[in-house]
Design brief:
Helix content is 24%, strand content 40%. The chain is α+β, with helices and mostly antiparallel strands. It has a single domain, classed as Archaeosine Trna-guanine Transglycosylase, Chain: A, domain 4. A 6-stranded mixed sheet has the order 2-5-4-3-1-6. The radius of gyration is 14 Å and the shape is globular.
């Protein structure tokens, strides 16, 4: 499958495309994309909110957790923050939002695009499935 992930901060996409950030986490209060809809071998196109698609990355592995507790969030942070490269305010926001679900996505083969690709998206979704498997 092909996915479109939207990011608020260009710096996060740049870290992924440089191979510095090797994991993405999507936390939510409800079952929402990409929870249980992404798998190893899928492709993720990286788009800046309100802007263009800057590159793509492949999925190396995925873990899903639900019914998150503060203890589970602490364990995820301790085990994966080196790969996630997220700051203190991110972890505070995730804990404060009472997230119940998380998709932990291990990334590989980052490919920045030489020219930016426009994609006509005008809604607030932060994740879109572009192409389903047949």
């Amino acid at each position: 499958m092909k996915h479109l992930a939207i990011f608020e901060q260009r710096e996060i996409i740049e870290k992924i495309l440089k191979g510095e950030k090797t994991m993405e986490a999507r936390f939510s209060r409800h079952r929402s994309l990409p929870y249980e809809r992404i798998k190893k071998g899928d492709e993720i196109y990286l788009k800046i909110s309100g802007g263009a698609i800057l590159g793509k990355v492949s999925v190396d592995n995925v873990l899903f957790y639900e019914n998150l507790t503060p203890e589970m969030l602490g364990k995820i942070r301790k085990e994966y923050n080196d790969e996630l490269k997220m700051n203190e305010s991110f972890w505070h926001r995730v804990g404060g939002n009472k997230s119940q679900f998380v998709s932990l996505i291990f990334l590989k083969n980052p490919q920045p695009f030489l020219s930016k690709i426009k994609y006509p998206k005008h809604d607030r979704r932060s994740w879109v499935i572009l192409e389903e498997e047949k």
